[in-house]
Amino acid sequence: MSSVLANILIGLITSLISGTSVWLWQRAKSARVWRRQAAFFGISPGQSGLIILTHHHSSPWVTSHYDVYALLEAAALVDQVRGEIAVEAASEFRGSNGNRTELCIGGPDANERSAGHLAYHLPGVRFLPFSSGPDALGIVVGDREFLWVRGEREYAVVAKFTLAGACSPVFLICGQTGNTNHAAVHFLRHHYQELMKTLPSIDRFCLIVRVSVPNVYGHELVELECDVTTEAFAP
After folding, report:
1. Are residues 60 and 158 in the same domain?
2. Does the pTM of the predicted model rise above 0.90?
3. Co-location of 109 and 124 in the same domain
4. Do 50 and 149 sit in the same domain of this protein?
5. Closest residue by Cα to residue 86 from 48, 130, 29
6. Which long-range contacts (CB under 8 A, 24 or more apart) does 127-136 make?
7. How many other C-beta atoms lie within 10 A of the C-beta of residue 176?
């Protein structure tokens, strides 16, 4: 074999080995990402993600456009982990989530299931009614209060827990507004890896997230305000 052909053959073999190595590395990296997502969200490829959709506080037959955006963000989250999407109305769904990870979206005034989850599993969390004057829609956790300042600073509760007898977790997303519901789902979808590194436990937690200047930045400028797990789950 001539030296030219030998060099060509060596080059082809080297390229093949290099390309195969890159493909295997990328496949292994993707597998690690999927395993992390499955561990955090409790959804393996092909499993269902159950989205409980809130309604407008004034009518069980109407959903605000911001909550529709929250639904779409939740659907994108389930699709991101290669799960199957199922949607149920909060006014109609009853029972346990069983082996389906539940994403329950909406505050207690507009979502009966959220109200039940808060009362039974997070007794340390209270939402003040819209009619409570300057404290309207405030979130109270223990001795801390997170006030709603329209267009400047708004908050949402993001919690994870598992119902008795269920195999998959519940993610409870309760915002002060429809936009904060959307922002909280966006936060979960894009920051779960950071939470896996910083939270003491990813099996049960309760967080307050802050949405800053929503009149300018919509749902995207959302950050972790604080971890209130101890206070939220305290009897």
Report:
1. yes
2. no
3. yes
4. yes
5. 48
6. 127/174, 127/176, 130/57
7. 26
Q: State the Cα–Cα distance between residues 111 and 102, nearest whole angstrom.
A: 14
Q: Are residues 36 and 106 in the same domain?
A: no
Q: Which residue in this structure is represented by tokens 């073999």? A: 13
The verdict on 58 and 3 lying in the same domain is no
Q: What's the distance, CA 58 to chain centroid?
A: 25
Residues 90, 24 share a domain = no
43-53 average pLDDT score: 88
Backbone angles phi, psi at 129, to 5 degrees: -70, 160
* Alpha carbons 85 and 49: distance in angstroms, whole number: 5
What residue numbers bound the domain in which 6 lies?
1-41
For 64-76, b/e burial (b = at least 16 CB within 10 A) is: bebbebbbebbbe
The SS3 of residue 226 is: strand
The per-residue b/e assignment along 136-146, b for 16 or more CB within 10 angstroms, e otherwise, is ebbbbbeeeeb
Q: What is the pLDDT of residues 199-225, one digit of tens each?
A: 999 999 999 999 999 988 889 899 999
For tokens 């299931």, what's the residue? 113
3-state secondary structure of 116: helix
Q: Are residues 130 and 206 in the same domain?
A: yes
In this prediction, residue 69 carries a pLDDT of 85
Number of domains in the chain: 2
Amino acid at 122: L
Q: Is 34 in the same domain as 134?
A: no
- More confident call, 87 vs 16: 87
What's the sign of the alpha-carbon dihedral 86, 87, 93, 99? positive
